[in-house]
Write the structure tokens for this entry.
Amino acid sequence: MELLSPIVGGILIGLAASILFHFKGRIAGISGIVSGLIDPNKSGDKKWRLLFIFGILFGALVTMQLMPERRSVEIDGSLITMVLAGFLVGIGTRLGGGCTSGHGVCGMARMSTRSFVASVIFVSAAMLFVAISRHLY
Amino acid sequence: MASFIAGFVFAVGLVVADLTNPQTVMDFLDVLGDWNPSLLFVLVSAIITTHLGGKVIAPKKHNIAFAPPEHSSVDMKLICGSAIFGVGWGLAGYCPGPAVAGATLLQTKTWVFIVAMLVGMALVNFIFRCNSRSQSD
């Protein structure tokens, strides 16, 4: 396994979270940022969310141009699997108040007990599910 | 502008770390298979960078209101939500950030995942709104 790209990638993700926290006072939780866009209660709060999402799209486009090998992505799951997976991720991240970035990176960096508990649970649940679906069935 | 740059850097990190490839994520979640620990390195370096970033740059001195997550204790919502999110994550190998960044590859399955995720989020937001309305009556 190559170590450089995961470590550099992680540092960049942390840098991005620090930039958002520093200039906007916001936590870089993608599920929260995305769901705020479709929440009518947060109508006065959409501009920075949109800019952040545009930044993600543009950043991904540019980086994939520079690293063409990252463009070959093979998704195993069927369309129905993707519907179910997306639905569960949407419900779960809203109920739990965060995903891998909000709880896993930012929350753990702030040493939040809630985020620590959430991260242990979602990583364990995902590993358990993969173990069952790939090896026991 | 800061939000756009933060999103941009975030996506560069995701692509460099190869998290936009669900296969890499699944190989991390598959502990009984040919385990690929690279995501662990991404998480740890992101957490350390964010932690240091939060220490070096305190938003207080810029007079920006820090918006901390609203809840403060571990409750059933956090536990169940995180478990549901974990199963969805293990089902497809996508969490919200990589799915949004991966959308730039224009694969139908990624877009289906994102739409289903938005539906799940909207559903929970809707139920929460109904609840808070009935409580205030």
User: Anything to note?
Assistant: The radius of gyration of chain A is 17 Å. Residues 29 and 101 of chain A are 5 Å apart (CA to CA). The mean pLDDT of chain A is 93. The first helix of chain A runs from residue 4 to 24.
